[in-house]
Every structure is written in structure tokens, then in C-alpha cells.
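Notes to self after the Tuesday call (sharing in case useful).
The group wants a holo model before anyone commits to mutagenesis around the pocket. I volunteered. Ligand is 2-acetamido-2-deoxy-beta-D-glucopyranose. Logging inputs and output together so the record is complete.
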Amino acid sequence: MAKLLQTLTPLLSLLLLATATTARSQATSFIYDFYGQKPTDLLYQGDAHFPSDSTFLRLTNTDNSGNPLSHRAGRAVHSNPIHLYQAGAHADFETTLKFTISHTGTASVPGDGLTFFIQPVGTPLGFTGASFGIFNPSGLNPAVFAVEFDIYPNAGVDPSYRHVGIDIGSNVSKNTTDVGGALLGQEVTARINYVQATKLISVQVSAGSESFEVSYVQDLSTFLPQMVEVGLSGSTGGAIAVFDVVSWYFTSTLVNTGAGHIHQYV
Ligand SMILES: *[C@@H]1O[C@H](CO)[C@@H](O)[C@H](O)[C@H]1NC(C)=O
Ligand SMILES: *[C@@H]1O[C@H](CO)[C@@H](O)[C@H](O)[C@H]1NC(C)=O
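Result:
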């Protein structure tokens, strides 16, 4: 024990020093490579499952031949709540997901989409179709932030192209980028980043040789509670596809906003 303490003390001082100099404190990080991994600290809701022979997380159900089913929704939610803000501190976060959306051998058009979302802890599974498993049947949910990868342009409300959109409390995106056919039939990598100092949400997407970007400025603490949970969702409506997640990385760090208030969690 004494020996252990001797070893730990310099390490602890180093940690304290690092915390003090960068004025950073509590952090949450996780990384899942679903290739052969079935994490037990994710909550699987609705359809989300690992097909028996799979190397990925499948968000919506398929039939015995692997064809997607209509009007389904599924989500994987990280089971540890995340501190988004507290007095004098707000979180920066970054997440990277790799996924494929496939639509082969089906007569129906591809739909609906996949999201990364942040919501109050314990919010139940939402509606299918254009609600992506996170919004209610009217496409609203005031306390949800999401980045949607929307492969079905809903006539009259969505832009007329397949898009990546930033959603604040509603499936009507605040900003979108036209992704053409890039989200279909190939691996997509999306990096989502939020910096509390500027309130800038930025999304970078790469698929094959193409890349896309969309951003929006919004203070997340104006509509989300202090403790939140993060997840991935997928849904089909009348339009269908298979939503498979290959890997998911997430990290968040509470950054002190007020000078002289350094919270330590060592
Ligand atoms: C939002 O969701 C509702 C219910 O699913 C749907 O009727 C509406 O078209 C959706 N809006 C967008 C912009 O996708
Ligand atoms: C929409 O995203 C683009 C690309 O990041 C950005 O240049 C533009 O300013 C954004 N529009 C709004 C309203 O935030």
C-alpha cells in the first residue's frame, strides 16, 4: 500500500497540475468498434440489435432475408449520464461515427434516416419515420439536440435533397447540407463537434471521395438540462433502408467558464 501510494503521489500531483493549468475538469470518453464488440454499457432500445453474424450494430430490424422492415425505430444510448454544464462550467464535446446505410433489393425508396442525439436522461424511444426515434409523432421534442442523416426528403417540409441537418427540438433542421447520394451504399464517417466558448456545432462528413460540412451556432444549455445522455438512432417509415453502425467515439470535457473557479474531480 505504501509503495502504491509512493507511486501514485507524483501521478496525482501531475493530474492536479494538468487540471489546474488547463482549467479543465470532468471528462467522459468512450469508443466502440462494433466489429465483434457488443458493449454492455449501451442501452438498446426499440429495434437496435446485433445480427447473429454481424460486425456492426443494426438500428432497425430486417426480415429473414436481410430486407429492411417499414415503420421501425431503434436506438443505442450510452448508459452513463453526461454532465453538459453546471455553475461556471460548460462541456465541449466531439463524437465520430462510422456507419453504412444500405438499400438494395427493395422496391421501396430509401428512408428515413440515422441520428446522433443528446436528450434528457431517460427520455423514451420516439416515433418512427421522419421522427427518427427521437421526436414525437408531430416531429417535435423541445429538449432534443440531433444531427440527422436524412435520406428521405419529406415533401414540403424538408429541403428537396438528401441531407445532413442540425436539429434543435424539431425534425425541421436549423441548417442542412445537400449530400446527394453519398449517404447510401458506402461507409460514411461523420465528426460532430461542439465548442462551448463559441457555441458552434460543426459537422464534417466524408463518404467515398466526397466531403460535406454543416454548422450552426446554438447554446445547448438553453434547452437541454445539466445532465444528459447521448445516443444513436435509426428509423424507417414507408421508405426503408438498413442502418448499420460500424464504430462510435465520443468525448466530452467540462471546461471552466468563470475565472478562478476550478472544480477538481481527482
Ligand atoms: C417531422 O416528423 C413528422 C412526423 O413523422 C413528419 O410528418 C414531418 O414531415 C417531419 N418533418 C421533416 C422536416 O422531416
Ligand atoms: C450552415 O452551414 C454552413 C456550412 O458549415 C455555414 O457556412 C453556414 O453559415 C450555416 N448557416 C447557418 C444559418 O448557421
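Two things stood out.
DSSP finds one helix and 16 strands in the chain.
The radius of gyration is 20 Å.
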